[in-house]
Amino acid sequence: MTILLYELVGADLQRPFSPHCWKAAMALAHKNVPFERVPTPFTRVATIENGSGRTVPLIRDGDRVVGDSFDIALYLEKTYPDRPTLFGGPGGQAMARFVERWTQAVVHGFIGGALLADINACLAAPDQAYFRRSREARFGKTLEEAGAGRHEGLDGFRRQLEPLRATLAVQPFIGGQGPLFCDYIVFGAFQWARVVSSFRLLDADDPVAAWLERCLALHDGLAGRVAAAA
Amino acid sequence: MTILLYELVGADLQRPFSPHCWKAAMALAHKNVPFERVPTPFTRVATIENGSGRTVPLIRDGDRVVGDSFDIALYLEKTYPDRPTLFGGPGGQAMARFVERWTQAVVHGFIGGALLADINACLAAPDQAYFRRSREARFGKTLEEAGAGRHEGLDGFRRQLEPLRATLAVQPFIGGQGPLFCDYIVFGAFQWARVVSSFRLLDADDPVAAWLERCLALHDGLAGRVAAAA
């Protein structure tokens, strides 16, 4: 049975951009289960699956509905144990939480503010109104103000990637010789940036950039097929 | 057969302090293999096991000699597969590298400079001469200068622990419901600080402090038996 993946889109339905939705899409592809992507603009998220207060990503697998990217990965691992593993055992499942929290603090911590105006520019008009209102309330400043310091903050951001860079000096993926869900957790954030913005987060010769290229090529280029923002 | 663990000590042979040696000691205890600790001051490290250029930790297990804390953990996992796992599978083994690199960048990055003078104060006289010379060359400043900004840097350090703190909000150990080698990697750095210095790295109500207490109690209080520096 085909799994439905509801994921966030802007004006162009072919360019899903949410980091958390990309984690779910990569996890589904990794498990090699058939899935269909349901483009979902911000202002329709609350209506999917007849639910109030739903968030994306959300999957429907037969009669089961699962939200939250990490929970989706856990669900897939448990439900499809014979497919390629997303965690590489219980230790990897536990440590993927650390990777998730690091990504949230360091990568989202920078991208989240830096790219707000770029995200907004990708949205359809009704979603722009929602996005500006909700994000400006959350950040306590305009979208443009939130991104104003991104050039000054870039060096510090790149330095904070050192644990990832140093890991990639000993192995091609965070998950080891091949990717695991931990890779998709970090990748999701960079793919988000890549799809919505031409702002260059990484030096071309950064080993993190080479890893990103490896991720873009995975699963028949699932993520690479969406062109980078010009 | 009893495994020998060579580990760094200062003037008091009963107070091993090296973070990397503590990782190895905790890994040996976790595997529940008998081991004997061989106190080794800085100026005798190069002479152990008749080797030139040896570093600690170093273990001898029968006719095998293994150095480097991560390599020791890998060796123990492979050699004693029926004992409690240090990695929880291949995914955990790979992601432990990420935890290691994060610890190196964030925790050692702060402690390394902040506690130099405290470390020096723990050493016997010949080791002090070696330590001061080698560390002042490495840092390009005196031991005292390297630690001068530690009060100003403390808030930033604590903020950088957020990925660890947030992980511990969902599970008691980085390794999940119980500790794995990834916990010992981070713990080693905090134990280092605890043994050599009374400088308070953590707020008492920090969830990281509670995790540290859990680690100190592990393996019959192996690490907790060494009293904190007064």
Describe this structure in words.
Two copies of one chain form a homodimer. With about 230 residues, the first copy, chain A, is an alpha+beta fold. The first copy, chain A, folds into two domains: about 5-80, Glutaredoxin; about 90-220, Glutathione S-transferase Yfyf (Class Pi), Chain A, domain 2, CATH 1.20.1050. The first copy, chain A, has helices spanning about 20-30, 70-80, 90-115, 115-120, 125-140, 145, 150-160, 160-165, 180-195, 205-220, and strands at about 5-10, 35-40, 60, 65. A four-stranded mixed sheet of chain A has the order 2-1-3-4, with helices on one face. The model of chain A has no long low-confidence stretch (mean pLDDT about 95). Chains A and B meet through helix 3 and helix 8 of A and helix 3 and helix 8 of B.
Q: What's the multimeric state?
A: homodimer
Mean pLDDT of chain A, nearest integer? Answer: 96
How many strand segments of chain A? 4
In spatial order, strands of the major sheet of chain A run 2-1-3-4
Structural class of chain A: alpha+beta
Q: Total helix count of chain A?
A: 10
How many whole angstroms does the radius of gyration of chain A measure? 17 Å
Instruction: Estimate the strand proportion of chain A.
Output: 5-15%
Pfam families (chains A, B): GST_C_7, GST_N_3
InterPro entries (chains A, B): Glutathione-S-Trfase_C_sf, Glutathione_S-Trfase_N, GST_UstS-like_C, Thioredoxin-like_sf
GO molecular function (chains A, B): transferase activity
Keywords (chains A, B): Transferase
